[in-house]
Design goal:
With about 210 residues, the chain is an alpha+beta fold. The protein contains 5 helices and 7 strands, in the order ααββαβαβαβββ. A hairpin with a 2-residue loop joins strand 1 and strand 2. The longest helix is centred in the middle third of the chain and has 13 residues.
């Protein structure tokens, strides 16, 4: 699991005692069998605890945390709290990648064509993830599939050292939109990793340099 919304973890007056600690995680959670069984055995208790919290806000994907209407599906909150309260170990890095690009944006970065599907996949590889979310089929499913296949044919190993100073795109601005056929390039043997995020007035093109 992973906190992609920067909500939490909270373990103080900010949230009600019965749901401490609280954090917003990605909705994809991999559970150990023993932990899954323990939660299943307590399903009725968990349901009653979280029912008033889940029934908050204008839609199903908002919860009441600390008296605030906070974005997030219930399953993005429940597992962190319930596992923590039982002292079950958990890893916040997660197996599945998802990124929120900008302030005031609630939805993770989305791939919708060949280029963005390939780029989102390669970004996940560069950060050591096993899976990536939000690779959606746009008007042409075959193009999205082709992008993922391209990614796997030339897969990246994890590249933990990333920066913006090695960018050598036009203007050295780490902005190389596919829509104007600009190449993402780097100096000093760094590898360009596209972020599938806006830059320079374009809907995509932002990248950084890693090795």
């Amino acid at each position: 699991m992973r906190d992609v919304q920067w909500h939490g973890p909270w373990d103080d007056w900010q949230v009600a005692e019965e749901i401490r600690p609280a954090a917003h995680t990605a909705e994809w959670v991999t559970l150990a069998t023993a932990h899954a069984v323990a939660l299943a055995d307590s399903e009725a208790t968990i349901r009653e605890k979280w029912r008033p919290i889940m029934a908050w806000g204008d839609s199903w994907n908002h919860v009441n945390v600390g008296g605030r209407d906070v974005y997030g599906s219930p399953d993005e909150w429940i597992f962190y709290t319930e596992l923590s309260q039982r002292s079950f170990p958990l890893v916040m890095e997660g197996l599945t990648a998802a990124w929120i690009c900008c302030p005031n944006v609630e939805h993770p970065n989305l791939a919708y064509d060949r280029n963005s599907a390939r780029d989102l996949c390669k970004r996940a590889q560069s950060e050591g993830y096993s899976f990536v979310r939000k690779v959606s089929a746009g008007d042409d499913v075959s193009e999205v599939i082709a992008g993922v296949r391209e990614c796997h044919r030339e897969s990246l190993t994890p590249l933990p050292d990333c920066n913006n100073w090695a960018c050598s795109s036009v203007g050295d601005d780490c902005c190389a939109p596919h829509s104007i056929s600009e190449a993402a390039t780097c100096t000093d043997d760094f590898t360009p990793v596209r972020l599938v995020e806006p830059c320079g007035g374009f809907g995509e093109g932002n990248y950084h340099c890693c090795k």
